Amino acid sequence: MNILEVKNLSIQFGGLKAVDNLSFNVPKKSIYGLIGPNGAGKTTVFNCISRFYTQDSGEVLFTPNEKTIELNKYKVHQVASLGLVRTFQNVELVKTMTVLENLMIGMHHKTKGGVLAQCLGLNNVLKSEKKNRELVLEVLETLDLQKYAYEIAGAQPYGVQKRIELARALVSHPKLIILDEPAAGMNHTETEELSHLIKKIRDVYDTTILLVEHDMGLVMGVCEKLTVINFGKKIADGTPAQIQQNIAVQEAYLGKEKNDA
Amino acid sequence: MKKTQKEMMRFIIFGIIIIILSQVVGFKRSTLTLINTVIVFSICAVGFNILLGYGGQISLGHAAFVGLGAYVSAYMSTVLGLPFLLSLLIGGLIPMIVGILLGLIALRLEGHYLAIATLGFGVTIQQIFKEWVGFTNGYSGMRAKTPEIFGFAFKSRESFMILAIVILVLLCIVAYNLLRFKTGRAFIAMRDSEHAAQAMGISMLKYKLIAFSISAFYAGIAGGLYMHLIKFTQPDQWGIVFSLNLLAMVVIGGLGSIWGSILGATFITLMPEILKELPVIGEIRNVSTIVTGLVMILIIRFLPYGLAYLPKQLKLKRINKRNANETAEVKA
């Protein structure tokens, strides 16, 4: 059973084919990796899936429960409520808010109460607020962030900010989380911790994780299946072990070996 | 829970203190008019701060909403003879609808472009005030009758002040409530990171429209109150100068702070009157505009969060200094 099916996806920016006829399937409850050298078009694929870009052709099918949804029919802000949440390559937190408030934003589409009810501070608004706050604190505890709950998000170290963003994606219990370079800018120990965390999230929250990554150590350690792209085209897919043996992948990353002899 | 009740009590106590002061001290009528104006302008500053300080959307045509509120409410109460409170409400709702239209424009524009577009909007509405003589009476100006609620006429400046302050306190509480829940967080997310906001399911369309319409509503209510306080208006009042003053109120008082809006409105309204009394300086024409500009530059340079954050900033400075001293001692 696949939670996400990308079929013949193509997008072009002024003549440059950023993604070219790309297809791959993400099985439910898996940790799936999308890798490729710099400029391969990984983030563009992510932006198409999360509706920040609209593809020129091809489709993205999302199956959170039984029903399959064509994501193309939804607007960018509607994607989260379908059960698909993303993070960003450069951390996109609301820097002036506390960590707790940032996670409350993650609960936005699950927060009840109309504008007028909020103006008057009606009971159902207060109740929903209290319930969400408890859920948020729970998630903070799972990710070992509870001591930062009332600190300003922008004042935290980079590694912590990355974890906060992850927590914010998690808090609404999405069916699929897509992580754009979760290990970018992290050192070796932090990356190791992150790979444990990603596995823990998948198991505790019973969700699917799709990630784009440069760091081969993380990808090979944590992903169950990979798709490799270069210049917007798929060049291989399979398990990490298969990918490591793949000659096309080695060429894409390391360049062709000249055999003149 | 405790904290929010405390904050609401602060608004109410503030209102009560102002009312008691105004009834007991026995100000001159002109001073009372001035204080009333401060209260009325505080209302539109609070609304403008929701838009600029929280939502991060600029408008340089906001005077048009205040003017619209003034004309509409006066037309309703004086020409059509509707009850005052209903007229005031309609005077808030019509700018609100126009605000939604402006919000639709804002959806496609941001930053400088939005500033220019809203400036154009403000000028257009002001021209309509001038040309649509049947409705506004053009340059001859429009009059309003004394506001009356359930038979009680707010004739004296003291009684009008009670009316104005009650409305200000109510609208402050409404704004405070709105901003501490989902909508407030969505506004701040929209201001600080549009991408993050969208990825978390916040609709830019919805929240830009909410921000523009609510601030236009506040502006309209302020306009209606102003009209029934002064009882006269003409198109020249609602031009670019007032829009810029509104911007100055919010920037000087403090972006993203309800108290800051009130502080800013007080500063901008009282400053010209105080300057007028001073020797030499008082004789320079338009000295208040010069001072407003200077103060704005100084505030942005030294107090980027406005006057409302001054105590917090001083406290932080003291803590930093103490920490620095302690480190110096340890080193010695």
Topology summary:
The complex is a heterodimer of chains A (261) and B (332).
Chain A: E1 2-13, E2 16-27, E3 31-35, H1 42-49, E4 57-62, E5 69-70, H2 79-82, E6 84-86, H3 99-106, H4 115-120, H5 123-142, H6 158-170, E7 176-180, H7 188-205, E8 208-212, H8 216-222, E9 225-230, E10 233-238, H9 240-245, H10 247-254
Parallel strand pairs in A: 3-8, 3-9, 6-7, 7-8
Antiparallel strand pairs in A: 1-2, 1-4, 4-5, 9-10
Helix pairs in contact in A: 3-6
Chain B: H1 2-25, H2 29-54, H3 62-79, H4 84-108, H5 112-131, H6 133-136, E1 142-143, E2 148-149, E3 152-153, H7 157-180, H8 182-192, H9 194-199, H10 204-230, E4 232-233, H11 240-253, H12 258-277, H13 287-302, H14 310-331
Antiparallel strand pairs in B: 1-4, 2-3
Helix pairs in contact in B: 1-7, 2-7, 2-10, 2-11, 2-12, 3-4, 3-5, 3-10, 4-10, 8-10, 11-12, 11-13, 12-13
**Biggest sheet of chain A: strands, sense, closure?**
6 strands, mixed
Largest interface: A-B, 34 and 24 residues
Q: Give me the CATH superfamily of the largest domain in chain A.
A: P-loop containing nucleotide triphosphate hydrolases
Number of helices of chain B: 14
Q: Tell how many strands the DSSP assignment of chain A holds.
A: 10
What's the helix-strand series of chain A? EEEHEEHEHHHHEHEHEEHH
Low-confidence parts of chain B lasting 5 or more residues at pLDDT below 50? none
Helix-residue proportion of chain B: over 70%
The level of helicity of chain A is 25-40%
First-to-last CA distance of chain B: 47 Å
Question: Average pLDDT of chain A, to the nearest integer?
Answer: 88
What is the gyration radius of chain A calculated from CA atoms? 20 Å
Average pLDDT number of chain B? 89
| CATH third-level topology of the largest domain in chain A | Rossmann fold
**Coarse structural class of chain A:** alpha/beta
* Largest sheet report of chain B: 2 strands, antiparallel
What spatial order of strands do you see in the largest sheet of chain B?
A: 1-4
